Amino acid sequence: MEVGLAMGHSNRGSCFFSGAAAFSLVAAAMCFLCLPATAQVCVPISVEDTTCDNVDDDCDGTVDDDFVSSGTSCGVGACGSSGSISCVGGSVEDSCTPGTPLDNDDDTCDGVDDDCDGIADEDFEEGPTGCGVGSCAATGLATCSNGMLDDSCSPGAPLDSDDDTCDQVDDDCDGDLDEDVVAECPASTTAPIMSQTALVATVIGLFVLAATALRRRKHKR
């Protein structure tokens, strides 16, 4: 058979064919059919070439020239990244590459998935807290919710509006003991070195400091 070309078309893309009454050797059943006893007419398989298959579907001399690139995303949390898809040599390629985790665990309460496992702040450790001074000292619990640190501790109410009793208790919760006593406490008055309330507040404070130091040491590891 003699190799021929369709009228008005050049030898390129999926419009190249061989002989009459035969399917294109290149585009077999995709591009056109040469009808017998008629002018040979090449019908491209598409008016544009949007597929990434290394075939010149619209017979304009360039393969996959109408392929549309689009943005892509990959990775989760702190590893989230963006890229784009493109057509290279008839294959679709995605340039997106996930980022690097900020840390091996996620013990910070900031709403960020630091270790890129799909969950934010899951390694945050709840701990006891203390607040208030003197007779207002109280305890609570530090928790993390939606990236926000919440402390349930709420100071108590003062025992009095001033502190004129000689009992070594900060009745008005201003940080000073018995500062409103008019005269010095009698020498015979036996006052405790530390009130029960102040002692509890001190113990709580020491516990909080120890827990914080332990957490920082673990984070550095």
What does this 3D model show about the protein?
- 11% of the residues lie in helices and 15% in strands.
- It is α+β, with helices and mostly antiparallel strands.
- The chain has two domains: 1-66, no CATH class; 127-220, no CATH class.
- It has a three-stranded antiparallel β-sheet with strand order 1-2-3, with no helix packed on it. The protein has a three-stranded antiparallel β-sheet with strand order 4-5-6.
- The longest helix has 25 residues, at 196-220.
- Residues 1-12 and 16-38 have low confidence and may be disordered.
Secondary structure topology:
Blueprint: E1 70-74, E2 81-88, E3 91-94, E4 127-131, E5 138-145, E6 148-151, H1 196-220
Antiparallel strand pairs: 1-2, 2-3, 4-5, 5-6
Compute the gyration radius: what is it?
40 Å
Largest beta-sheet details: 3 strands, antiparallel
Strand content: 15-25%
Alpha-carbon distance between the two ends: 78 Å
Structurally, the number of domains stands at 2
How does the helix and strand content classify structurally?
A: alpha+beta
The strand order across the widest sheet is 1-2-3
Helicity range of the residues? 10-25%
Q: What is the arithmetic mean of pLDDT?
A: 79
What is the global morphology? rod-shaped
Number of helices: 1
Write down how many β-strands occur, each being a DSSP E stretch of 2 or more residues. 6
